[in-house]
């Protein structure tokens, strides 16, 4: 057993990481699906979308072949509607709320229809929004992820000049660096960021890290307001013996390498164990398999009923050949010559519910041993607590406290996204950016946005 790269041919990599949700090939195909929509009054799909996209409206616009109007409707609520159409867990959001589910019929393919309109708009670089004249107000945003970019776009539409400070060399945040490559390609992420910036009034300064290249005090003195969209990103440790062995990696770093390097550059083992059952764990497991791992086993300390990922994601892992071991918790990693060779897990039973409402796993006293040469830790992510604390921002275990206007405990400093909620979906971060922009506009006494559909 060994960890190595260049396991597959270029054609095999391309096939394994091809778009998992192909778009509609043409207008005719989109029209067939769009015309299934019942255009519900008080539509549940709108209520289930964190950004409140008017789903019946944009689908109706597709049926009338008003693609520009459809894209405008989507982007008015969610400027990252193109990316969200690829990565949103729609089965528990808009499509999960579709009334067709009650009729035991297939729900409307809302995500594919959303992708159809937004892809055309982005590829044609349609200027769907016009920026108001500059107000002279300047806002700094830390983080060019979904929350930061969403906030920046709303502010820029209202004539506020925005400078975004991003620690990476590309924008997009989680979309660019933290999601499986077969869901959203790096090329699309770059196109989406460019489209958002095309409104003007937004400058991104890359390779700028808060606490290293820039300070919060500096931003406060140079700008009228500051928005923090720094996300989360510290991998939660297992705190078990052997965690330091070669071949033990965290899922965040593993996926980051896949996103930032060529597929053939990323090393993977023959037998891989993935610890966790969230969306990140699924992405790590499926991509390990697609990189050429012979065997991938996912280990989770609870049952399928308590898993944080969706059934759709779990089925994806199963279809890729990943094995699942339920009710097992890692207790030790052993190795040979400083390299991992075995993962020892305790079998578990479920006891009383914990603080989150899920039943707590309890050690059943037996041990399972897996022969592996790579262990990927996907036990969750933690906020940047030290960074938040050092800037004297009120928080709870690193998650920043904000009021109803997205304001932190420091006047003029706002925050949103994963750094506040601890880690939710991309679409939640987009809405947090909109909320932050609204709070900043109030703070700066700038007129609130009034969006009219001119299409």
TrEMBL record:
Pfam families: Fer4_20, Pyr_redox_2
Domain of life: Bacteria
Domain 4Fe-4S ferredoxin-type, chain residue ranges per copy: 28-61
Signal sequence residues: none
UniProt name for this protein: NAD(P)-dependent oxidoreductase
Protein source organism: Mucilaginibacter jinjuensis
């Amino acid at each position: 057993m060994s960890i190595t790269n260049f396991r597959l041919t270029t054609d095999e990599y391309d096939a394994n990481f091809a778009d998992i949700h192909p778009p509609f090939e043409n207008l005719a195909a989109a029209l067939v699906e769009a015309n299934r929509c019942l255009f519900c009054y008080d539509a549940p799909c709108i209520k289930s979308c964190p950004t409140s996209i008017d789903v019946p409206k944009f689908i109706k616009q597709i049926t009338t072949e008003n693609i520009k109007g459809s894209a405008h409707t989507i982007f008015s609520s969610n400027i990252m509607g193109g990316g969200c159409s690829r990565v949103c867990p729609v089965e528990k959001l808009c499509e999960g709320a579709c009334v067709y589910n009650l009729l035991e019929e297939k729900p409307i393919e809302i995500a594919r229809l959303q992708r159809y309109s937004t892809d055309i708009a982005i590829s044609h670089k349609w200027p769907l929004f016009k920026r108001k004249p500059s107000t002279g107000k300047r806002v700094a945003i830390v983080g060019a992820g979904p929350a930061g970019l969403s906030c920046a776009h709303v502010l820029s539409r209202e004539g506020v000049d925005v400078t975004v400070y991003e620690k990476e060399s590309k924008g997009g945040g989680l979309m660019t660096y933290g999601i499986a490559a077969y869901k959203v390609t790096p090329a699309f992420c770059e196109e989406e960021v460019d489209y958002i910036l095309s409104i003007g009034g937004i400058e991104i300064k890359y390779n700028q890290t808060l606490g290293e290249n820039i300070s919060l005090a500096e931003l406060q003195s140079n700008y009228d307001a500051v928005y923090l969209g720094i996300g989360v990103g510290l991998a939660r440790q297992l705190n078990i013996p052997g965690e330091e062995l070669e071949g033990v990696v965290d899922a965040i770093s593993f996926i980051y390498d896949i996103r930032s390097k060529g597929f053939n550059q990323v090393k993977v083992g023959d037998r891989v164990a993935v610890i966790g059952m969230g969306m990140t764990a699924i992405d790590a497991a499926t991509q390990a398999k697609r990189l050429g791992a012979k065997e991938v086993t996912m280990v989770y300390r609870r049952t399928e009923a308590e898993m944080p990922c969706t059934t759709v994601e779990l089925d994806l892992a199963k279809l890729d050949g990943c094995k699942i071991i339920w009710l097992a918790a890692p207790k030790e990693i052993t190795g040979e010559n400083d390299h991992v060779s075995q993962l020892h897990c305790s079998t578990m039973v479920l006891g009383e519910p914990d603080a989150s409402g899920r039943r707590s796993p309890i050690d059943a006293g037996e041990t399972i041993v897996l022969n592996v040469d790579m262990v990927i830790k996907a036990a969750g992510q933690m906020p940047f607590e030290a960074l938040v604390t050092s800037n004297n921002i009120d928080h709870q275990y690193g998650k920043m406290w904000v009021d109803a206007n997205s304001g932190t405990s420091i006047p003029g400093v706002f925050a949103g996204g994963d750094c506040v909620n601890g880690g939710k979906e991309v679409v939640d971060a987009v809405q947090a950016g909109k909320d932050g922009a609204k709070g900043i506009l109030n703070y700066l006494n700038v007129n609130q946005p009034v969006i009219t559909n001119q299409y």
